[in-house]
Amino acid sequence: MYQSFEPTQALSPFVECYWSWYVEPGHQTIDDILPDAAPEFILHLAAIPFVKHDSGEWIQQHRAFLYCAAHHTLSLAIREPMMVFAIRFRPWGVSRFSQQSMATMLDRPVLPFEALGELGDELVAVLRMSDTDTRRVELANSLLEGALQIPARNDKRLKKLLDAANGGRCRSAEMARTLTMSDRSFSRLWSEIVGIQPRRFIQLMRFHNALSMIEAGEELAAVAAECGYSDQAHMGRRIKAISGLPPTSLRRRLGNNVYRNLYASRPGAPWHSREKQ
User: Fold this and answer.
1) pTM, 2 dp
2) Closest CA to 18 of 115, 140, 107
3) CA separation for the pair 22, 45 (Å, rounded)
């Protein structure tokens, strides 16, 4: 069972949602978590699942960690009953709370203190002591709002970047011109705050928007046109390059598993939520 919870208004520019996920006894499966550049602070409250390493070996996850899937699909093996509570940040959100560059924290589990300093350890401590999701949300809101009172090293640059990005709709060169920066300087700024190159961010935005429309039963040609691909064949190549599967096969593969649960109600990519604010 999956549930999501809204952050406070003060946190919503940086936190997309909180979510919990309970897996019942006897449920065993392998699920694929697709790259989306949205960092998530994960806390396992019961059994800890296994992830597939590049070597092909299955390795147990940490109890608590930050993870941002930006380039690789994460395969998750669930073998025992699970309870997960997580904070889903927007692609730029962690940069408001961390002293680390996001570029150093992609596609790998980052322990709480490395990712968020003392705030990371405090989150783990209070969330593990709580016995309800409602209380966990309250405590997470309190700690994160407290952290907002501390000046961030890149507040002004972060705000300028987000205003220029227009929800991720502009091309890199257009965003750079809005900021009166060179393409190279803009790319460095974006990569420091979001962790990936602007071009990759735009590719992921189109990818998830396309998947949400395909899942809703839209015609593939119409999806390609709406999401900014040159044609249906171009869309198929880009989706396969990111996920390893063509669009229709990916839809069948995902079914009613983690991906659909996490994205069906938002829908899709994290920038959708930002546009509604």
Assistant:
1) 0.84
2) 140
3) 10
